[in-house]
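INFO  loader      accepted 1 record
INFO  loader      residues=366
INFO  predictor   begin
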Amino acid sequence: MPAPKTTDPTKNILRAHAEDAYADELTALAAQDEFTRPTGWNLSPRAVVTYLLGDTLADGTVITQKYFGDRRIIEVAVSSLVTDRALLLVGVPGTAKTWVSEHLSAAISGDSKLLVQGTAGMSEDALRYGWNYARLLAEGPSEGAMVPSPVMVGMQAGKLVRLEELTRIPSDVQDALITVLSEKILPIPELNKEVQAVRGFNIIATANDRDKGVNELSSALRRRFNTVVMPLPATLEEEVRIVTDRSAAAAAGMELPPIKKDVAAEITRLVTIFRELRNGRTEDGRTQVKSPSSTLSTAEAISVINQSRALSHHFGSGSLEPEHLAASLTGAIVKDRGQDEPVWREYLEVVVRQRKGWEDLWEIMK
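INFO  predictor   done
INFO  writer      dumping tokens
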């Protein structure tokens, strides 16, 4: 008989906010943080970097590593937020831009929920404010009839605001941010007043120039951001570590039990395939290969491993086998059958078929 479901709704949340999932770490860091905290910050810049990069505190509390990469990138990002300029994280999809922005907001403001998701159909209301039209018709323009945007709330509360996919937003809507970023005010002409930003307010935006539907930032808006480029993992070992760590955490959230045997070999093989197709050459540099249209990011590698884990658990023996990996690989790589399928078939023939120790994968994929 299955166990009864919990009545606590928080236990069934698919993905907790960073400030909730890592509340113990943030509390321990705040208690032992002896460095200067800027006004409106929950932690000092040093403690924020420690939160993202991991460490063991003096009392034995383990701070888990959230970002795997160059320490200087995180230090520059945190330092930018101390200034009066906003932060723009730029990189191809899957370079942890959203992940980093969420954890920066959680560590600095204790709140990562002030989020604006950029879309091609966005209006200025999402960046400024909207109206409750029933009250607007009944009362006319008033503060009670106003619906503040996350940007307005962040300005009033002195918190960080996350702006995802900035380059997906139409250019004329993007420019609604210029006054907010330069003057730190949000005019409300209907009420003949303005909102002035409280210390602690800033914006972390993310953008990429790889996807379709990208709108270039105006030079006036770009000047108001400090830009940090988020690179893909530099080495195979680093990317394998990221995929291993993040996929294990995701598997726990999906209620998948641990794999019965070590998955390191299959993760390494997957990451190797992604890196070689992405870079257009094999890891040893001896063979040139064509690249598909898909980005083959680290995030996609994590997704393939998660899908393979689910296949193994629900439709296999519980051991992650090459057949589970193969079942998920093609869908991740071949996004455009006319363009990507020939590239994938050529890679299988030229690389997979010839590589020692990969005979099992070739037999499945051929």
